[in-house]
Amino acid sequence: MADPIKKLPPNRRGQVRYRAVIDIGYEPQTDKATGEVITDPATGQAKLKRKQLTITKDTKTEAKNELARIRHQRSAGTYVAPTKMTVSALLDLWLKSATRDAEEATASNYDNALRPVRKYLGHKPVQELSEEDVEAFIDWMVTEGRQRGGKPGTGSAYGRYGSPSGGSVRR
Prior knowledge:
three-stranded antiparallel sheet; flat; alpha+beta; single chain
């Protein structure tokens, strides 16, 4: 098997770098104009396209180690591909699935409950979210986050967001 790590020509600064491309799975193929998933008319299944990750490192050893790490995590089923999805986009996905069969008032309540999260954390990429960000959000909710009357720090501010990450955010 050929070496998957390629030596790149020197860049403007004269640095030689190393690059590898690795398959990280498949995703549904979407129509560029509409964003809808393309299905195979013969099978009715979604057409899939290969996802690849390009790794560029300063040394061949770094590239080899990163490649080995990703391969190991893929085989163990723990690999999470890099994404630029923001907290707001994730909340949109969750809200869509959570309110699919819900009453209109319930959907409205969920949307209203998520407004402070969107305001404070919505711009942040999910994979960059840290426990400190969540703690800062909770502090903000307790001190100045209330928007509908009442004194800041009263009542429901903390109760709703006591564990917004469900324990999944780590330091």
